[in-house]
Amino acid sequence: MSETLERWGSKRAFILAVTGAAVGLGNIWRFPYVAGENGGAAFLLIYVAFVLLLGIPVMMAEILIGRAGRRGPMQALSALAAEAGASPRWRWLGLFGAFTVFCILSFYSVVSGWSIEFLVASVNGNFNGASAAEIGAGFDAFLANPGLLIFNHSLFLFMTMTVVAAGVAKGLERLNNLLMPLLYLLLLLLAGYAATTDGFAPALAWLFLPSFEALTPAVVVHAMGHAFFTLAVGACALMAYGAYMPEEQSLPKAAVAVAVLDISVALLAGIAIFSVVFAQGMDPTDGPGLMFVTLPIAFSELPWGSVWLSVFFLLLLLATWTSAINLAEPMVATLQGLGLRRSISTAIVAISVWLIGLLSAFSFSTLAEFRPLFGRNVFELVSSIPPDVFLPLGGLLIAIFAAWVMPRDRVVSALGVGESCYLVWRNIIRWVSIPLTFIVLLAGLL
User: Fold this and answer.
1) 76, 79, 111, 147: most buried by Cβ count inside 10 Å?
2) Which stretches are transmembrane (predicted)?
3) Rounded CA gap, 398 and 392, in Å?
């Protein structure tokens, strides 16, 4: 089996890369409002449990396929399926994963462009002294301006694909080594600032003192789905990174480290956000608008609010940037596996994602009335169906392939652990993770 030529330069580089793929809008934008809508601490408790039982085992399955194949997702799946005497159709899972990431990145780039606009606005002090009505109206006007949305979408995608084009060592690894520590530093600064506000104690209570009356089947399903979404599993992105994984690295230790880092980002972001929200007596259940409407209102009334709001949107931009870079890599790797040069592969991905992203950008203005499916516009479709349906379906197939199809010795070797640890992982993924992933998929379809 032909192997990829590049490798991550160290164990730390691999962990930062996978964390970079996982940490993004799911942690800083989606987690706070989903937690707010689903009971705070009750949601958090179930979410962490499902990260352990669902997220980590499936993450390990995805990475080990790439590590065993040492090629792009399609090529690794094809070679490993042939080795196991299984259907060659398994290779199409790699293409499905690339399509899933393609859809996600098309709306991800648009939303991440919002963070550029809001960072500039907060640095300029545009929210200082503005009323809640003015901030809300400003956000609506921004969404209704297709030219501005397209400019920010284009700028963000250019920032992303420039790094991807540089390759694993010169591009992804170098930027991850720089930006991931900076991201955590900014998070700690924000959490430290949150500790000085009157909302800090209520925020801690909201996040860490569960009311079990809030536990409903809907909360459990949301927590299960978010555990899946936030770790970036199911789209073969981590499979591409497994192909670059150092030989001597323990996969279980790396997966646990990524999960801890991922959860810590969500917790620190939640503490910072809810402290500010509670300090101003605002509602933590404001939904997706929590980030771009509620927070500017809350920060505008606090001492040094514009400075800390700027830090927050810088943090959001860095998180989405590293995540987008690491999500784009598997698409480029898939095209490279078909024989295209990296520069050509990157250009094809960039242009394609940019074009489809225009549909999401126009969904708030020109195409606002175009609702092709389920009464939803294009942005609502691509921001819900790929994360809620495609990711669980991809994750289910990845788990089945790793746990039931791959040769046992290849799995043990790729995990980098002994026989007893392999048996623990196999039993968990076969009898716990796969059924839970199926439930997540059903919930996304209903």
Assistant:
1) 76
2) 12-29, 41-65, 92-111, 149-169, 181-209, 221-244, 256-282, 302-324, 344-364, 389-407, 428-445
3) 10
Compare 366 and 6 and report the one with higher pLDDT. 366
> How far is C-alpha 164 from the chain's CA centre?
17
For the CA atoms of 150, 154, 157, 161, the dihedral, rounded to the nearest 10 degrees, stands at 160
**Beta-bridge partner residues of 373:** 376
> Both tokens of residue 185?
């530093």
Higher pLDDT, 127 or 351: 351
Determine the residue type at 319: A
Q: What is the four-CA torsion angle of 362, 365, 371, 372, rounded to 10 degrees? A: -30
Residue type for 365, please?
A: S
Per-residue pLDDT tens over the stretch 84-98: 999 999 999 998 998
Q: pLDDT for 366-386, tens place per residue?
A: 898 989 888 889 998 998 888
- Is the CB of residue 257 less than 8 Å from the CB of residue 11? no
Percent of the chain with pLDDT over 70: 96
Given phi > 0 = left and psi -120 to 50 = alpha, else beta, which region is 416? left
Let me know if 408 is exposed, middle or buried by CB neighbors in 10 A (0-12, 13-18, 19+): exposed
For the chain, what is the largest distance between any 2 Cα atoms, rounded to a whole number of angstroms?
A: 67
